[in-house]
């Protein structure tokens, strides 16, 4: 009997995935004991433009101190990376990058703050874009 039930559940999940049915927060499994649901924001910052690095380590440190830390003073992580993307002209660009990861209570306020950070970076350093990814996670602090 359990096998038939599992097949039914798998078929329902497959149907939802294949038809593009939206997932709802209420559909997510509960967080494990001792954890709570949070939003994880990942922002990808390119440090080059036109094949040259335009955002120095010092410029990044100032941006982090002035724009990011005041918006997320409770904590964040910055990771150095090597990025690649296709620019508006269709050319592949490779550049050093920074990945900012913030885990915060979900909601419009945190989402708005990440949008402000991305816009400030684009304006200050003449960047075409900043990739922002939002995920729901279970975390404990």
Describe this structure in words.
By secondary structure, the protein is α+β, with helices and mostly antiparallel strands. It has a single domain, classed as Alpha-Beta Plaits (2-Layer Sandwich). It has three helices and six strands; from the N terminus they run H-E-E-E-H-E-E-H-E. The strands form two sheets. It has a four-stranded antiparallel beta sheet, with helices on one face. A hairpin with a 2-residue loop joins strand 2 and strand 3. The longest helix is centred in the N-terminal third of the chain and has 18 residues. It is globular and about 50 Å long. The protein starts with a helix and ends with a strand. The N terminus is likely disordered.
Topology:
Layout: H1 2-19, E1 36-46, E2 48-49, E3 52-53, H2 57-68, E4 77-86, E5 92-104, H3 108-125, E6 131-139
Antiparallel strand pairs: 1-5, 1-6, 2-3, 4-5
Features:
alpha+beta, 4-stranded antiparallel β-sheet, two-stranded antiparallel ribbon, 6 strands, globular, disordered N terminus, Alpha-Beta Plaits, 33% strand, 3 helices, 141 residues
At CATH level 3, the topology is Alpha-Beta Plaits
Number of helical segments with 4 or more residues: 3
Rg to the nearest angstrom? 19 Å
Largest sheet: 4 strands, antiparallel
* Beta-strand residue fraction: 25-35%
User: Tell me, what's the shape?
Assistant: globular
